[in-house]
Structure to design on (266 residues):
C-alpha cells in the first residue's frame, strides 16, 4: 500500500480541519481583517488629523456626522476584532499552563467585547444626541 | 521523581534544548517580525486611548476638555507619537505580509529591503503626519 497509515478517516483528511476543527480559519480571518483595515486605518488617520485643534462642539459635529461615524464604527469594530485575534496568538505562544491560558484567552475576548461595546456606544451617542 | 541539577547530568545525556532568541544574529527580517508583534501588542493597549477619547467626546464638555488636556500634554503627545509610529509600522508589516502571501519578495535582497523599507516608511510617514497636524491645528 502506497498510502501512509493514518487514524484519520478519508473524510477528515480531505476536510483538512485538524484536531481543533478550525483549520486555517484563524489565519484567514487575520488576512481578511488586515486587508479591510488598510483603507479603514487611512480613514481613521484622516479623521484624527481633522480633529486636531477642534474644541468640544466642533469635534462632536465632526464625529457625529454620517461618514466619519460609519468609518469609525467600522475601524473600531474590525480593528478590535483583528487585535483580539492577534492577542489570542500571542497568548497561545507564551502562556503554557492550561488554566492560565484559558483564563487569558477569556480575558482577551472580554477585553475586546468591552472595548468594542464602549467605543460603538460612544460613536452612536455622538451621532444621535 | 527528584529534579536533577542540569549540571550534574553528563553532557551526552542531557535533553537537547532549542536555542533562545539571544543566540541568533539579528537580521532585518527578524527585527521586523519582532517589531510587528510588539507594535501589535502596543496597539492593543493603545486602543484603550481611542475608546477613552470617544467616550469623553460622547460625554460633556468637562470630560472632553479633561481628556484633551491629557492627550495634549507633553507625555500625552509623546504617547500619541508612539501610537502613530506603532500603527504605521504595523500597517507596513501587514503590507509586507500581503506581498509575501502573494508569493513575491522572498529572495534575500528583496526580503531585507522590504523589512528595512517598512521601518523607514513608517518613520517618515509618522514625522510627516505630525508636521501636518502641527500645521493645521
Amino acid at each position: 500500500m502506497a498510502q501512509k497509515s493514518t487514524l484519520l478517516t478519508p473524510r477528515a483528511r480531505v476536510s483538512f480541519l485538524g484536531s481543533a476543527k478550525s483549520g486555517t480559519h484563524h489565519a484567514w480571518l487575520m488576512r481578511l481583517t488586515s486587508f479591510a483595515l488598510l483603507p479603514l486605518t487611512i480613514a481613521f488617520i484622516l479623521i484624527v488629523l481633522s480633529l486636531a485643534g477642534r474644541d468640544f462642539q466642533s469635534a462632536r459635529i465632526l464625529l457625529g456626522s454620517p461618514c466619519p461615524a460609519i468609518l469609525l464604527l467600522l475601524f473600531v469594530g474590525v480593528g478590535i476584532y483583528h487585535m483580539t485575534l492577534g492577542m489570542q496568538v500571542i497568548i497561545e505562544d507564551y502562556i503554557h499552563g492550561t488554566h492560565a491560558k484559558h483564563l487569558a484567552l477569556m480575558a482577551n475576548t472580554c477585553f475586546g467585547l468591552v472595548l468594542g461595546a464602549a467605543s460603538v456606544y460612544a460613536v452612536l451617542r455622538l451621532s444621535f444626541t | 521523581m527528584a529534579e536533577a541539577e542540569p549540571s550534574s547530568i553528563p553532557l551526552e545525556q542531557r535533553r537537547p534544548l532549542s536555542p533562545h532568541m539571544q543566540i541568533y544574529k539579528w537580521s532585518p527580517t527578524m527585527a521586523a517580525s519582532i517589531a510587528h508583534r510588539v507594535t501589535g501588542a502596543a496597539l492593543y493597549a493603545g486602543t484603550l486611548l481611542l475608546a477613552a477619547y470617544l467616550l469623553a467626546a460622547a460625554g460633556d464638555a468637562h470630560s472632553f476638555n479633561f481628556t484633551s488636556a491629557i492627550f495634549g500634554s507633553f507625555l500625552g503627545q509623546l504617547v500619541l507619537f508612539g501610537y502613530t509610529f506603532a500603527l504605521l509600522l504595523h500597517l507596513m508589516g501587514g503590507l509586507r505580509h500581503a506581498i509575501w502571501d502573494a508569493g513575491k519578495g522572498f529572495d534575500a535582497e528583496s526580503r531585507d529591503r522590504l523589512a528595512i523599507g517598512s521601518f523607514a516608511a513608517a518613520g517618515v510617514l509618522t514625522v510627516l503626519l505630525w508636521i501636518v497636524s502641527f500645521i493645521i491645528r
User: Anything to note?
Assistant: Chain B has four helices and no strands.
